[in-house]
Amino acid sequence: MDWRAMPSLHSLRAFAAVAETKNLSAAGRQLNVTHAAVSQQVRALEAHFGCALIAREGRGVALTPEGEQLNRGVQSGFETILETVEHMMGSNAERPLNVSTTPTFAVSWLMPRISDFRCKHPEIQLSINPTAEVVDMEPGGVDLCIRYGPGQWSGLETELLVASNYVVVGARCLVGDAPDFKPEDLLQFPWLQELGTNELAIWLNGQGVVPDKKLNVTHLPGYLILDGLRRGYGITAMSRVFLQSEIEAGTLRVLFEDLKSEGYHIVTRPGIQRQPARDFIRWLRSMRDAEQTC
C-alpha cells in the first residue's frame, strides 16, 4: 500500500463526522474539537483531492457528488475498523442484542412469542426498541430491524418474515354495515394513526383524495391504536395479519385492502452478523416456518 498517497486519517475522520451530522459544529462536538479544526481538516482533504467535498446548505452543509463518493468508501472503512476493534476488545460480544421494530409488531407478534426465545437462549441479553422511526443501522448500535414494506431497501439485506396485506379497517360499531365505501367517504370518520408515521396522508394520496378541511386524526403508540380501534374510537390503516381473527369474527370491518406483495421483513446490514443476532434470526425463522405449516 502506498501510504504517501493516503490523506491524513484525522482528516478522513473529521470528514466522516461532517458527512454523518451535516454540520461542522456537531461534528466538532462528536470529535471533541472546535468546528474550526473540523473545517481545517476538511479543507485539507479538498486540497488533497483538488475538488470541493462539502457545500453550505442553510445552517449546515451538504455533500457534493465527490463528497458522496468519498463518504461511501470512508464509512465502509471506518465501519470495518470499528467492528474489528469491538471484536478484539470483547465489547461486541457482551453488549445486548439490539432489535428495533414498530410498536404494533412488537405488541401483536413479537411479545406473545418472545418467552420461547428467552427459554432457548437465556444467555443472550435482549434489548427491544419499539419505534416507528427509521433508525440508522450502524456497527455497535441496532443489530437488526423488523419493518413493514416491500423489502427492497438500498444497502440493506432483507428477508420476509410475515406476509400481510395492508387494510383500512374500522369497528363495525363505528362504520356500520353500509354498502361499499368510496375513499372520500372515509373522511367522515376519526382516524387513529401510529406516532411517527403518515399512513393516512399516504393512503389518501394514493387514492387521489384531497381533503377539503383538516382531518380528525389522533396520533397514538401502536398498542393504543389496537385498543382504540376495537372500541370504535376511529378507523386506521395497518397490516391485516394482526386483525385477522377479529375480521373473521365480524367485529372489525375491512373498508379497503391493498393487495401489494408486502409484509414485515428482517432487516440487517450486509456482512456477517454477530452470534446473538444469528441466533435471534434463526429463532424468527423457526416461528415463521412453524406457523406456515399450521
Tell me about this structure.
- The chain is of the alpha/beta class and 294 residues long.
- The protein folds into three domains: 3-91, Winged helix-like DNA-binding domain superfamily/Winged helix DNA-binding domain (Arc Repressor Mutant, subunit A, Orthogonal Bundle); 95-164 and 263-293, Periplasmic binding protein-like II (D-Maltodextrin-Binding Protein, domain 2), CATH 3.40.190.10; 166-258, D-Maltodextrin-Binding Protein, domain 2 (3-Layer(aba) Sandwich), CATH 3.40.190.10.
- 43% of the residues lie in helices and 21% in strands.
- It has helices at residues 9-21, 24-31, 35-49, 65-89, 91-94, 103-110, 114-120, 172-175, 199-206, 222-230, 244-249, 275-293; strands at residues 54-57, 60-63, 97-101, 126-130, 144-149, 157-163, 166-171, 191-194, 217-220, 236-239, 252-258, 263-268.
- α1 (9-21) packs across α3 and α6 (103-110) packs across α10.
- The longest helix is centred in the N-terminal third of the chain and has 25 residues, at 65-89.
Supply database-style keywords:
5-stranded mixed beta sheet, 294 residues, D-Maltodextrin-Binding Protein, domain 2, Arc Repressor Mutant, subunit A, 12 helices, alpha/beta
